Amino acid sequence: MKPKLKPLAEQVIVITGASSGIGLVTARKAAAAGAAVLLVSRDEAALARIAAELGDRASYAVADVGDRAAVETAAAAAVARWGRIDTWVNNAGVTIYAALIDTPEDEHRRLIETNYFGCVNGCLAAIPHLAESRGALITVASIVADMPSPVMGAYAASKAAVQSYVESLRIELEAAGTPVSVTLVKPSGIDTPIADHAANHVGGHGLIPPPVYAPELVADAILDAAVTPRRQITVGGGGRAQALFAEHFPRVFERLAPIAATTFIDPAKTQPQPSNLFAPARSGRERSDVNTGRQVSLYTAAARRPKLVKGVAVAGLAVGLLALRSSSRRKEA
């Protein structure tokens, strides 16, 4: 039996990290498309405001994704309200700006609890329900899962772990015949408040690593995967190019990366306090205070339409062969 994904207007969608950034944009877009949406985060006041804004088809559950029991309770809340879960989106995440040797252990462990175990807990809570609905399990990782990142090394390590977990889980579910579509979304730098919310031990104000894209592009990729089975989607061609460069030219990348990392900090500004590592902070915003994201990614648009791209490529090849053949005939004549 294979996954059978419903149109968005017929879906029940659970989104973690829904009180800001990518999660908030995705929730608003899903609700606008007619989906029932359960918002999950630690910030009850923000969740209540957002759910009221979205109307009767939205509800919320307060949960720290690092707490498996709380995540299970959130899943139960969705089922109690609507009878099922069709799509689950693991999106909650935090970050730290610091050299790895200067990263406080409690902060490092907290980041792993949220970013990695938050994904694990979401998957374990969601899979029994998604197997019944033949739905979609979507996890937001990052392009830094594919490359090292000085100053944001703890974040990169957590996202690499998320990628390995999700890819291994997909294999196991497929081998067991579990009808769940498993998608990994890997954004490039995205204009969200994650840098504003970060713990910062290098001074200045944390910035989103460039090139920076709009959160709507990630939300569109997530909702596309909710209705069309996708293995993996990278959002932002700039980030994909960086990852390929790191893979194929590792020694050069290692020399250039510390220079590039200077663009992750604005030394003229001060980091907002407190961070959201241990408690919610300044929720309710989709975008950062200091970045502006690109509204278009041709790479991501092409990746979401592989058949169209393949058709264009085949057509181009055919035209090229015809032109070559015509040229050859003229020469023979």
TrEMBL record:
Sorted UniProt keywords: Oxidoreductase
Keyword Iron: no
UniProt xrefs under Gene3D superfamilies: NAD(P)-binding Rossmann-like Domain (3.40.50.720)
Residue ranges annotated for the Ketoreductase domain, each copy included: 11-179
NCBIfam families for the chain: PRK07109.1
Entry keyword rRNA-binding: no
Alphabetized Pfam families for the sequence: adh_short
Gene Ontology CC terms: membrane
Region called Disordered, residue ranges: 270-291
Record-given protein name: Short-chain dehydrogenase
Family to which this protein belongs: Belongs to the short-chain dehydrogenases/reductases (SDR) family.
GO MF: oxidoreductase activity
